[in-house]
Amino acid sequence: MGVGVGLTVLRQGVVLGSTALRRRLLVSLEINNKDRAYEWFLSWMAHQASTPAARSSIAAPWTRSHQLSVETMIEQRKNGSSSALFKLVAGPGTHWFRYEGAFIQVKRERETRSTQLMSGVPWETVTLTTLSRDRSLFPRLLSEARDLAMRGQEGKLVIHTAWGIEWKPFGQPRRKRPLHSVVLHPGVADKVEQDVTRFLERRQWYADRGIPYRRGYLLHGPPGSGKTSFIQALAGSLSYDICLLNLSERGLTDDKLNHLLSNAPERSFILIEDVDAAFNKRVQTSEDGYQSSVTFSGFLNALDGVASGEERIIFMTTNHVERLDPALIRPGRVDLRQLVNDASPLQARTLFTRFYGEESQEASEGLNRLANELEDIVAEESGKGRQISMAALQGLFIRNSAEEAIVTCRALFMPSTT
Ligand SMILES: Nc1ncnc2c1ncn2[C@@H]1O[C@H](COP(=O)(O)OP(=O)(O)OP(=O)(O)O)[C@@H](O)[C@H]1O
């Protein structure tokens, strides 16, 4: 009996001792999948293992682990085609790696009983554990992970969508579209761009006068005239992200909307498309008749953003400006209103020459003649009250040779709506 008691005391002593030792000697860092660092860290781990240059600073025995997860990414190539890439990341379980000479244990755990309310994604944590004396490695490691993630986004446009009350990147960052590739009526692009840049330069001016630092833009015009493309290209050229807001989304309430608009990621445009469709006679109805719980007055309040002192740039688009409630487009909510119309003769010509280019002097003369012809057709049809959208012209140019495009384009003109 004495031996039994002695062994029990010894065992307890060992457990307590090892816990105390762990506390004194080890340090842990927990990263939750609610935090942006979560994705950064897992991607960083995967990158270290797959890149020979990076492997010198890290030994990654975790790649021999039996618990791996796969993340599939769609990569867009320069020629516009895309392919699926598979990235192997550390799966749920315990893994080890060495970073700058120190051993680090990574424990990835997934909560199986509860999921995130809005997205249905399970809660997850990764816990990094290392010796106390190496605690300074954590900030370094996280900064490296963040810098790697940021490098991956350089030159790219990130689109965020709302997940419950949070914004999350939607898909992979896209290649930025050059601003000049969206061909608008002369002066239109410059006018909007200059307004945005002037606004961005006047933060202090707004602060000094106690005016909320926000600006609203409304681009209106027929479908396929380049409103969305222009906003995305402008965001890209200013290195801003886009936060795409769908007012008809189920479950969106006034409170959530207010929270979303007040907590958009830094350096981002909030884009609300087809704003006329969302509020029809001040009641919001989706196509299947579902009525969202965002009220018109809730939307106006959220736009005003009384609670927020942060920079806020909101772009709205519509095909039917005449259907919008005057309260929505009053100055302060919409500060700049711009018509983006169907193709003018000059726009059609510019898009045409962008598509077919000029290979030789001889070809360029032929092209010039065809471009003149296209300009004449657009002017002539417009005299008869018929227009062609830039999107229709783009489709025509993609499918046909320059000559065929000129011969067949007349069939695509539609009665003007503006
Ligand atoms: N002005 C333009 N210059 C170059 N391409 C254009 C232009 N307008 C439209 N396009 C092309 O047409 C397609 C549709 O354009 P986009 O979605 O920007 O139009 P939109 O005005 O936002 O349409 P909607 O009102 O239906 O949302 C895109 O692929 C874009 O490249």
UniProtKB/TrEMBL annotation:
Regions annotated as coiled coil: none
PROSITE patterns in the record: AAA (PS00674)
Annotated AAA+ ATPase domain residues: 213-344
UniProt KW Transmembrane helix keyword: yes
Family affiliation: Belongs to the AAA ATPase family. BCS1 subfamily.
Catalytic activity: ATP + H2O = ADP + phosphate + H(+)
Subcellular location: Mitochondrion inner membrane
Membrane-topology descriptor: Single-pass membrane protein
Domain (BCS1 N-terminal): residue spans on this chain: 1-182
Database matches in CDD domains: RecA-like_BCS1
Organism: Hohenbuehelia grisea
PANTHER family: BCS1 AAA-TYPE ATPASE (PTHR23070)
UniProt KW keywords: ATP-binding, Hydrolase, Membrane, Mitochondrion, Mitochondrion inner membrane, Nucleotide-binding, Transmembrane, Transmembrane helix
Ranges annotated as spanning the membrane: none
Pfam families: AAA, AAA_lid_BCS1, BCS1_N
Protein name: Mitochondrial chaperone BCS1
Main localization, broad class: mitochondrion
